[in-house]
């Protein structure tokens, strides 16, 4: 894709914020025969292989999935209890991020980040927590953060990013974990005093994976000063020891009504077509496993919606009247299940939905205990309120296929 792509995505998201309200009338008479679901055209996200090494860096404000996050505020990234799975205590894994600026001055740049624990065991426990109404301290394995910045900020120039490799962000980022490349590397290896980790867990994994051998050699080579180290992580791609990060994709944004996915792209998406076949098989077997008619009806309606663009991974709803499409009828939240913003107490609105198709792109096995969900719906503060916290917690509703384990 040409280098205008990034600008296009930004423009589309910005335009979407403004236009959708006016556009709604045109589509009011669509799908009159389906009272339960409103199939209003929305914006869809598709996965594509990154075009180059640099376009998913933070100064280009990417919507992306897998790999490491492109932190919008690269300095004050979530730490403490925020970055771990509340159930097993392991650091969370980066799922995806969506660039969704608003008209609001302080949300000139606005990014939503989704993290989750890759353990299905934890996700099943997370389900129990989800159904508790507004627990004081929610215990979740899926976490969403909202970060926003005004046009004038310490990290990025006011000019539109130049779409080339030489464009650099202003200001340094925090030093990150050498293992996951995701979270702050606050812990330093006591032997070499160079390797940095977010957690003991990642230090142990790194040690076993080879730091045991590398560490004595790093002690001999001249130690790197702290400032050099942070520049290295800023201007080169972050070194990541872990082989278990999910594969990295760019998220391409398109309108649902657009039926013009470039056929020339089909060639470059060859691996996604394979995934789709696999996905179809699994989808059919899921359908067969449903007992109740309600689930079957819900599933059929979901499939109908997806069929227009079967490779969609993300459905973006903000500022539309469209509602998430639920693959199964059980395990949907009622309005009362969606909490209010924990910062301004205002309402939260549905921002986007992550479809289970994502798991196929991520190459997640289809085993009994593999990570799986029917839908993840992200709700964010409707007002995009400004709290002093750089990364604000938002809310995710996770629907899984097996209601018996959810209750
Ligand atoms: Zn966990
Ligand atoms: Zn780490
Ligand atoms: Zn070491
Ligand atoms: Zn709020």
Automatic annotation (TrEMBL):
It comes from the Eukaryota. The keyword Glycosyltransferase does not apply. GO terms for biological process: regulation of ribosomal subunit export from nucleus. The keyword Iron-sulfur does not apply. Residues 177-215 form the MYND-type domain. One of its GO terms (cellular component) is cytoplasm. Residues 20-39 have a biased composition (Acidic residues). GO terms for molecular function: zinc ion binding. Residues 14-40 are annotated as: Disordered. InterPro entries: PDCD2_C, Znf_MYND. Keywords: Metal-binding, Zinc, Zinc-finger. This is MYND-type domain-containing protein. It comes from Phaseolus vulgaris (Kidney bean). The lineage of its organism: Eukaryota, Viridiplantae, Streptophyta, Embryophyta, Tracheophyta.
């Amino acid at each position: 894709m040409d280098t205008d792509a990034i600008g296009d995505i930004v423009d589309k998201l910005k335009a979407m914020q403004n236009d959708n309200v006016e556009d709604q009338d045109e589509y009011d008479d669509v799908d009159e025969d389906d009272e339960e679901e409103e199939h209003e055209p929305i914006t869809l996200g598709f996965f594509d292989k990154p075009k180059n090494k640099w376009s998913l860096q933070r100064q280009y404000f990417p919507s992306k999935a897998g790999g490491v996050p492109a932190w919008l505020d690269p300095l004050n990234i979530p730490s403490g209890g925020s970055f771990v799975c509340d159930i097993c205590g392991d650091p969370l894994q980066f799922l995806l991020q969506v660039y969704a600026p608003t008209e609001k001055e302080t949300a000139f740049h606005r990014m939503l980040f989704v993290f989750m624990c890759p353990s299905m065991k934890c996700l099943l426990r997370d389900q129990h927590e989800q159904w508790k109404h507004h627990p004081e301290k929610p215990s979740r394995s899926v976490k969403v953060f909202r970060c926003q910045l005004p046009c004038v900020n310490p990290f990025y120039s006011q000019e539109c990013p130049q779409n080339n490799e030489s464009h650099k962000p202003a200001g340094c980022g925090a030093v990150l974990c050498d293992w996951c490349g995701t979270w702050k590397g606050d812990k330093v290896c006591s032997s070499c005093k160079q390797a940095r980790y977010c957690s003991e867990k990642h230090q142990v994994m790194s040690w076993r994976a080879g730091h045991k051998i590398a560490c004595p050699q790093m002690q001999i080579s001249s130690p790197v000063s702290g400032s050099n180290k942070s520049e290295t992580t800023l201007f080169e791609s972050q070194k990541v020891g872990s082989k278990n990060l999910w594969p990295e994709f760019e998220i391409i944004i398109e309108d649902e009504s657009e039926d013009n996915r470039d056929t020339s792209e089909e060639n470059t998406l060859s691996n996604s077509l394979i995934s789709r076949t696999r996905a179809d098989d699994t989808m059919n077997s899921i359908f067969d496993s449903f007992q109740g008619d309600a689930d079957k009806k819900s599933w059929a309606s979901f499939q109908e919606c997806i069929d227009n663009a079967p490779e969609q991974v993300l459905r973006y709803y903000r500022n539309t009247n469209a509602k998430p499409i639920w693959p199964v009828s059980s395990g949907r939240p009622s309005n009362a299940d969606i909490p209010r913003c924990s910062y301004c107490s205002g309402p939260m609105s549905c921002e986007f939905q992550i479809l289970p198709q994502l798991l196929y792109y991520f190459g997640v096995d289809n085993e009994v205990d593999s990570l799986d969900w029917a839908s993840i719906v992200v709700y964010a503060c409707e007002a995009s309120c400004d709290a002093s916290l750089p990364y604000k917690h938002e809310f995710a509703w996770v629907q899984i296929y097996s209601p018996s384990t959810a209750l």
